[in-house]
C-alpha cells in the first residue's frame, strides 16, 4: 500500500499529482490530498458501487412510477446522493406534493450524516475547507465506512473519501437512469439478492472496525437503542438515535 506521507515535491512534479500535505501543530501525522488517494478510494469502492447500483435501479423504477422523467430522476440522484431519503421521498410523492412531510422525513433520515462527518473530523480538520466539504458532498454510508477503515489502518489519504464517493455517485446516477428508462419491466431488484450485497458489505466492514471488547459497550448501546426506537417511533429515527447512543457511551468511556 502506498504511503502518501512520503511524497515530495519532485514526486509530485513527476507524476502530475497535485498533492497537498497539511501539517499540524499537535504532533499528529499530516494528511495528504492528491490523485493517489482518489485512485485508491475509487478502485476500492467500485465492487461495492455495484451493490449500490441495485438500489439506484429501484429508485429509478419508483421515480418512473410517480411520474418523474428520466432527466428529473437523474438530476435528483446527482444532487441529493442519498438513497434512503430519495426512495422515501418518491414513496411520499402525491398531487399536491406533501413538501413538509418530505422535508421532515428526509431530514430525519439524513441526520446520521452529521455523526458520520464528525467521526472524520480528526483527519479532515487538516484539509482546506474546499477539499473537506467538496469530499463530504460525495459521502455515503458505504464509502464513509471504507474511509474510516482506511484512516484507522494508518493511512492519511484525505482524498480517499472523494475517490470512493465518485465511484458510488457514478454508479448511483447511471443506475437511476437505467431504472427510470426500464420502468416496471425490471421488477424488484431485491429478487436478485442485490439487497443482501450491501448488508454483507457492512458486516465485513464492521468486522474490520471491531476493536475487541472495548467496542462491545457502544455497539450494544447502539443496537439496543435502535431496536427500541424502531418499535416506538415512526420513520427512520432509529438510525440517528442508535448512533447518538454509541457516541454518548464513547464519550463517557473516554472521560473516565
Overview of this protein structure:
The chain is 70% helix and 2% strand. The protein has 256 residues and is mainly alpha-helical. It folds into two domains: 35-209, no CATH class; 211-256. It has a two-stranded antiparallel ribbon with strand order 1-2. Strand 1 (20-22) and strand 2 form a beta hairpin. Helix 3 packs antiparallel against helix 9 (160-182) and helix 8 (141-152) runs parallel beside helix 10 (194-209). The model is unreliable at 1-18 (pLDDT under 50).
Spell out the blueprint of helices and strands.
Elements lengths: L8 H7 L4 E3 L8 E3 L1 H31 L4 H11 L2 H9 L7 H12 L1 H13 L4 H8 L4 H12 L7 H23 L11 H16 L6 H17 L4 H19 L1
Antiparallel strand pairs: 1-2
Radius of gyration: 20 Å
Profile the largest sheet: 2 strands, antiparallel
* H-E order: HEEHHHHHHHHHHH
How far do the termini sit from each other?
36 Å
- Count of individual beta strands: 2
SS field, number of helical segments: 12
Helix content: 55-70%
Low-confidence stretches: 1-18
Structural domain tally: 2
Q: Give the DSSP E fraction (strand runs of 2 or more residues).
A: under 5%
Strand order of the largest sheet: 1-2
Shape: globular
Mean pLDDT: 78
Structural class: mainly alpha
Amino acid at each position: 500500500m502506498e504511503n502518501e506521507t512520503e511524497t515530495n515535491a519532485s514526486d509530485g512534479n513527476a507524476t502530475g499529482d497535485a498533492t497537498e500535505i497539511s501539517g499540524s501543530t499537535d504532533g499528529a501525522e499530516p494528511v495528504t490530498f492528491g490523485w493517489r488517494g482518489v485512485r485508491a478510494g475509487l478502485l476500492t469502492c467500485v465492487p461495492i458501487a455495484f451493490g449500490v447500483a441495485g438500489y439506484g435501479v429501484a429508485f429509478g423504477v419508483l421515480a418512473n412510477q410517480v411520474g418523474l422523467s428520466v432527466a428529473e430522476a437523474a438530476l435528483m440522484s446527482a444532487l441529493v446522493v442519498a438513497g434512503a431519503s430519495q426512495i422515501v421521498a418518491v414513496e411520499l410523492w402525491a398531487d399536491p406534493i406533501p413538501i413538509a412531510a418530505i422535508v421532515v422525513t428526509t431530514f430525519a433520515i439524513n441526520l446520521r450524516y452529521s455523526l458520520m462527518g464528525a467521526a472524520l473530523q480528526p483527519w479532515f480538520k487538516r484539509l482546506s475547507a474546499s477539499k473537506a466539504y467538496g469530499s463530504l458532498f460525495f459521502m455515503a454510508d458505504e464509502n464513509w465506512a471504507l474511509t474510516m477503515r482506511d484512516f484507522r489502518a494508518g493511512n492519511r489519504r484525505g482524498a480517499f473519501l472523494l475517490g470512493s464517493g465518485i465511484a458510488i455517485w457514478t454508479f448511483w446516477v447511471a443506475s437511476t437512469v437505467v431504472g427510470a428508462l426500464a420502468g416496471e419491466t425490471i421488477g424488484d431488484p431485491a429478487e436478485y439478492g442485490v439487497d443482501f450485497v450491501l448488508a454483507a458489505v457492512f458486516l465485513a466492514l464492521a468486522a474490520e472496525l471491531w476493536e475487541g471488547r472495548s467496542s462491545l459497550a457502544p455497539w450494544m448501546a447502539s443496537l439496543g437503542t435502535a431496536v427500541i426506537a424502531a418499535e416506538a417511533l415512526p420513520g427512520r429515527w432509529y438510525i440517528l438515535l442508535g448512533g447518538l447512543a454509541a457516541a454518548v457511551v464513547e464519550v463517557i468511556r473516554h472521560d473516565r
